[in-house]
C-alpha cells in the first residue's frame, strides 16, 4: 500500500492511520478524510506507511474498531515497524487505554494530533498561550491514561489526612495553570483590542478558509509583503494584518488560522481572541481550494466554524483559488455552480484585478455621497471629512466651504454626531 518509503523518510516516525465508514460516511469520504489525516501526520513529522478503513455502523465503545481489527492492526504494526497509530476521530480515555494495550504502540486521536501541530507551529506569546490552554483542557479528562501512580498513599504514622491521590494533585495543578493561562490571554486580548482601535477608520477584510486553501499565498499576491506561506496544513497560526492600496480604497487585510473538519472545540475556544480579526471584519474573503474534490464540504465546514465563533451575517466574497490546476471544463462548471464567486490563482497571479474590483464594488455598497456647506472656522468637521472620506469636489464661498464627498455609512454617522457636537447646522445641497 504505502510500503515504498524514501531514504530521507527513514528517520521520521512511522505511522498507521485508522478511520471508519458506515451509514453517515461513504467509503470515498472516509478515504478523503484519511488523505487529509496523512497531510496532518506529515505536518507533525510522521510518514504514513499504512491506512486502515473499517466498515462499522458505529465505533466500538471499547476499542473503536473491534477486537478482531485491533489484533490485525497489531500484526501490521509489527510487520511494518510502525511506531504510532492515529485515529481520524476523537477517542475516549477507555478506547485510548485499550488500544494502547492491544497494540503496544503509541496511540493518538485527531484532536491530539492537531494540538501537537499547533504546539510546534506556535511562535508568538499569544499563540503559545492559546495552544497550551487547549492542550491542558484536552488533557484534563484523560489524566488516567497518562499516569500510572493512581493508588492512594499507604496508611500508617505520618500519613493521616486527605490522602490525596496523584491524579487529584495533577488535576488541581492543571486547573491552576488553566486559570493562569486564561488570565494571561485576557491581558493579551486587551492589547489586541487597543491595536484594533487604531484601525477602526479603515475597511477591514479578513481572509478565511479551510487550511491549505492558499490564504497566505493570496495575501502575499495582493500585498507583496512576504507573509509566511507553505504547502502544508496550518502554516499560519497568528493573524497577520497588512495595509493594501486599491484604486479607490485603502483596506486592511488580515490572514488568520485556517479551519479544518473536526477542529478541536478547545482549540476554537482558546483561539477566539486571534479570531477576533474575523469577527470584527467588515468583509470576509472566503478562500477555497478549487482543485479539491471536497471543496463543497470544505465550504460547509468553514461556514459552520464561522457560526461557532459568531462571525456570520457578514458581507462575504467567495474566492476559488488554484484555478490554474483545473481544466477549462471544470472552470466552466465552477462558474455555473457559483456565479457570484471570483476565480483566482494566487500563485500564478490570475484574477487578482477581478478580485480587487469585487472588493471595491462591495465597499461601495456601504458608501453614500453627500454635498455639504460648512463654515471654514469649523475646521474639525472639514478635517474629519478629508481624513475619512473621498472628497470629489471642494469650493469656497465666503466663509463657507462646499464639499462633495463619498463616505462610509458608519463614518457618516460619526460626522453627523461631530456636527451636532460643535453646533454646525450644515446645509445639504
From TrEMBL:
It comes from the Bacteria. HAMAP family: GTPase_HflX. Residues 171-198 form a coiled coil. It holds the Pfam family GTP-bdg_M. Its main location: cytoplasm. Monomer. Associates with the 50S ribosomal subunit. The keyword Magnesium applies. GTP binds at residues 209-216, 234-238, 255-258, 321-324. InterPro entries: G_HFLX_dom, GTP-bd, GTP-bd_M, GTPase_HflX, GTPase_HflX_N, GTPase_HflX_N_sf, P-loop_NTPase, Small_GTP-bd. GTPase that associates with the 50S ribosomal subunit and may have a role during protein synthesis or ribosome biogenesis. This is GTPase HflX. One of its GO terms (molecular function) is metal ion binding. It is found in: Cytoplasm. Belongs to the TRAFAC class OBG-HflX-like GTPase superfamily. HflX GTPase family. PANTHER family: GTP-BINDING PROTEIN 6-RELATED, GTP-BINDING PROTEIN HFLX. GO terms for cellular component: cytoplasm.
